[in-house]
Amino acid sequence: MSKVYIETYGCQMNEYDTEIVRAVLQQDRYDLTDSPAEADVILLNTCSVRENANRKVFGRVHTLRHENNGRNVKIGIIGCMATDFKQRLLDDPHVPVDFIVGPDSYKRLAGIIRDAFENEEKGFDVKLSKHETYEDIYPVRQSGVNAWIAVMRGCNNFCSFCVVPYTRGRERSRSPLSVMNEAKKLANENFSQVTLLGQNVNSYSYDGKDFAYLLNKVSEIDGIERIRFTSPHPKDFPDSLLNTVAENPHVCKHIHLPLQAGNTRVLDMMRRTYTHEEYLDLVDRIRAKCPEIVLTTDIIVGFPSEIDKEFEDTVKIMQAVEFDSAFIFKYSERDGTLAQKKYPNDVPEEKKTERIMRLNELQKEHSLKRNRAHIGRMFEVLIEQEQTKKSDTDIQGRNDGNKLVIIPNNGYHIGEFIQTEITDATAHVLKGKVINHK
Ligand code: SAH
Ligand code: SF4
Ligand code: F3S
User: Fold this and answer.
1) Topology annotation, domain 143-252
2) This prediction's pTM
3) Integer CA distances (angstroms), 407 to 23, 85, 130, 239, 424, in order
4) Any ligand 1 atom below 6 A from CB of 260
């Protein structure tokens, strides 16, 4: 039996897809391994969202080739780099890969691997589908407390900087029934949390049913204690969704709301379809309904032609909102995107560095302030790991707002809910003591 090793890069959607790939390959009698040294097939499930994501993978292909020199190992690139680079990737002599398979073609993966061994053929399938949702496949997950469920795939937004609509194709949603059946099965397997995924979850739509409907339906399933979702787009955050987050006790009080930039001219060039003021109004609307909400975001600095004064509008939004955390990126030009075609990548690298450092500093202040406001308060923590990075005598989990909480380990186990009082906080974690556990 051939052994397959998979490495995953990029976003949660890729994590989920790796679980789909595991399922598809196991059905075809492949065995999975955690060690590239004993694998016959090595798959890199890749991300193309920024250039450094690509660079990492190119480097990794070389290392893997080198380490496995002399063995008959096939290395394949799957995921977003496959659909982004297409044939160019197979033709590039500097990237010695055996086959490439895009995110909508995983059902053909086993056949392509077989051809690679039998015919020494460089397999290639990067077609995107209008329909594939893999709803008929039950992913092979690693154990834990959280299970991803992709409820929609693809993106129709075409933000001008973003390669995702090209790498993952058009939006399509899977049926509420298939999502619920999967969540029920997960509950029976003791997953107490599910995270519903989509490039833009509030575009979820199936036979007139929207995302709020889906969240409520999943929340009715016995055993699913917590439901998270990512990411909604600020352009369309309907009241039905907001009410669900605010009122449904199983839906976690955390919204990841990608801002990207604070200046309206820049937002317009990014094709985000909201203004500085509209974003702030949305935050006000969310906080009015749900004051305890945890808000996180994504920001890009140095979009083409962004001048200092416009960058200050991003600072202003951050100061007004005080996000709980933020992922901040330097603009990276992606081939084929509208921004690449229309706007020269003209903000100097040093400027981008200066801006990202400034925002990271500011965010750290806000994270610390928000986290310290938790001190003295009580939260239910779902244990995720029986050690922490730094200590064997501590255990870590998350509260409803997705904050990492560290507590002394008194023999608690993964999956337990523990009533915790927060005693201390840094910008990254909360520390707590146990009040009660059930
Ligand atoms: N669908 C998600 C975003 C997926 S990509 C959403 O809209 O919420 C994750 C993040 O990567 C984006 O929010 C954006 O901040 C960042 N990103 C995407 N393309 C980028 C680029 N070309 N350069 C820098 N950052 C980028
Ligand atoms: Fe990219 Fe925009 Fe779609 Fe998000 S919504 S995946 S940023 S195009
Ligand atoms: Fe990357 Fe593809 Fe996700 S480009 S961010 S892995 S959708």
Assistant:
1) Transcription Regulator spoIIAA (3.30.750)
2) 0.96
3) 35, 45, 46, 36, 11
4) yes
